[in-house]
Design brief:
Elements (H helix, E strand, L loop, with lengths): L1 H23 L11 H11 L1 E3 L2 E3 L2 H57 L1 E4 L2 E4 H72 L1
Antiparallel strand pairs: 1-2, 3-4
Helix pairs in contact: 2-3
């Protein structure tokens, strides 16, 4: 695993050095500055050849090793920093998503409250609220018309009953007067009959 990391790092470093060469054009070769690739090139150029082998001075090889190690450590630090940045950005995205959800919920609640009316302590949609109110108004109107018709009928019955009562009272008064006259007539006749018998 460690080998793969170093191999990947060397490939990245070599890739960066190719890109750097392409961008900078001609690079001066040295072990003290420049990219790792240019340092390898310098080492190859300055080493002597013995048969099919290159002979490299130990101090130069150690210097190259130190440079490679420094580059690897620098890349590790950059990767660590990048990982920290990614983690921070993930945390920030999570925080923003939470805040967005909260704001979205609040917006939905505001929309619901805007499109609703409070009826008997409960939120009811405006359309349903209007339907309930118009239904109540229609029911009250029907009840008012029904009550008016009942009152009118009762009033007509009362007026008719009063009229009949007046007629009955008149009949009774006529009958009483007739009975009183008859009684008086009978009383006179009885009185006359008593006079005649005496």
């Amino acid at each position: 695993m460690k080998f793969l990391k170093y191999l990947l790092l060397v490939v990245v470093v070599v890739s960066f050095s190719f890109v750097g060469k392409a961008q900078l054009g001609e690079v001066t070769l040295s072990l003290d500055s420049g990219r790792i690739e240019s340092q390898f090139d310098y080492l190859m150029k300055k080493s002597s050849t013995y048969e099919a082998f290159k002979v490299v001075k130990t101090d130069r090889l150690l210097k190259l090793k130190a440079n490679v190690t420094d580059s690897l450590n620098s890349l590790k630090k950059e990767l660590g920093d990048a990982a920290t940045v990614v983690t921070n950005q993930k945390n920030e995205i999570t925080s923003l998503n939470t805040e967005l959800k909260k704001i979205t919920d609040q917006l939905a609640q505001v929309k619901e409250e805007k499109n609703s009316m409070s009826f008997l302590g409960a939120l009811v949609e405006k359309g349903l609220y209007n339907t309930i109110m118009w239904s109540l108004a229609a029911i009250l109107l029907i009840l008012a018309v029904f009550a008016f018709l009942l009152f009118k009928r009762s009033n007509a019955v009362t007026a008719s009953t009063k009229q009949k009562l007046l007629e009955t009272e008149e009949e009774f008064e006529t009958h009483r007067k007739t009975a009183l006259r008859r009684e008086q007539k009978l009383a006179r006749e009885l009185l006359n009959a008593k006079r005649d018998n005496v």
